Amino acid sequence: MDGVLNINKPTGMTSHDVVQLARRLLGEKRIGHTGTLDPLATGVLVLCIGKATRIAQYLEAGDKEYRAIMRLGVTTDTLDAEGRVLETRTYAAPDRATLLKVMQQFTGSIMQSPPAFSAVKIAGVPSYKLARQGRAKPNKPRPATIYSIDLTAFENPLVNLTVRCAKGVYIRSLCADIGDALYAGAHLTGLQRTKSGIFSIDTAVTLETFAGMAKSGTVAAAVTSIDDALAEFPVIELSTEESGKVIHGNKIEYPAAHRGQNTRRGLVRIHDSLGRLLGLARHDGITISPELVFS
Q1: Which of 45, 47, 33, 36 is nearest to 5 (CA)?
Q2: Among 3, 99, 150, 224, which one is least packed by beta carbons within 10 Å?
Q3: CA 252, CA 286: separation in Å to the nearest integer?
Q4: What are phi and psi for residue 260, nearest 5 degrees?
Q5: Is 163:66 a contact under the CB 8 Å cutoff?
Q6: Are 150 and 162 in contact (CB under 8 A)?
Q7: Count of C-beta atoms within a 10 Å radius of residue 142
Q8: Rg of the chain taking only CA atoms, in angstroms
Q9: What are the residue ranges of helices labelled H in 93-170?
Q10: Bridge partners (DSSP) listed for residue 150
Q11: What are phi and psi of 231, to 5 degrees?
Q12: What is the pTM of this model?
C-alpha cells in the first residue's frame, strides 16, 4: 500500500507508538510520520505509507494549526503539564485586552528557543536526554513564523488559544513566553493539532476506526494517494518525450504550454500526458529540474 493516512492521535501515546501500531496493523515496515506530537497532544498525525515515505519531508514542511490550553501562574521544567513544577507565582490576572496585546507580540517572524525537553540535538545528543540527566543548557533561539494567535476563551488561570504557524514552532515554548511576558509564568495543559498542510482534524481517522478498517481490509478507503497528498503544489503536464527525459533525472525546458501562467516558482508536481504523477520538480520559468521521481 502506498499513500498517506491522516490519524487522530490520542493523548498518552508518542508519535512513534502510532507508527509502530500502524506497521503491525498493515504489515508494512515503510511507515513514517510527518511531524512529532508530544504524548500530551492529540490530533492530526500524518502517516506516510510505502512509497509515500519519500514525500514525508514535503508534507512535514506544511503549515500547522493548533488549539492550545495554557495555564497561568505555574511553570514546569518541560513547559507542559507532564513536567515537574518549578514555580508557582502570585500574579495580577490580566484582562482580555492585555492578553491580546501580549499575544500579538509573538506573531510574525520571531525568535523562539526550543524546550530543553525536545528532540533538538546538541552535539548529536537529543536535548531531552541531556535534560533528564540534568545536563541540559538553554537551547539557542531560532527563527519561527507564527501567522496568528486567536484568543478563544479565558477564565483565569486558563487561556484557550488557536495558533496558526509554520513548521518548527513549539507551542509549549510559545505558552511559556507569553506567560513570562505577562509576568505570570505559564505552561501548556492541553494541545490538539487541527491542521497539518492540507490535512485537517475533520477528516482524521481515530486509531479505533483504523484498527477496524485494517481488520476488515478497508484501510484503502481512508488513504490519500501520493498525488492528492501533494495537492498544494501546482501541476505541469509533460509530453511523452518530456516525461521520458524527466523520469531519467534530466532537466528539460519549461513546457511552452505552461508559459505565461501564474505558476508559482518552486516545486511543482509533474504529470505525464495521461495525468499520472511522475514526481516533484523545481522550475524557474525557464527549465524544470526533477527533484523526486517515481518509477
Answers
A1: 47
A2: 150
A3: 9
A4: 90, -10
A5: yes
A6: yes
A7: 13
A8: 22
A9: 96-104, 127-132
A10: 162
A11: -60, -20
A12: 0.90
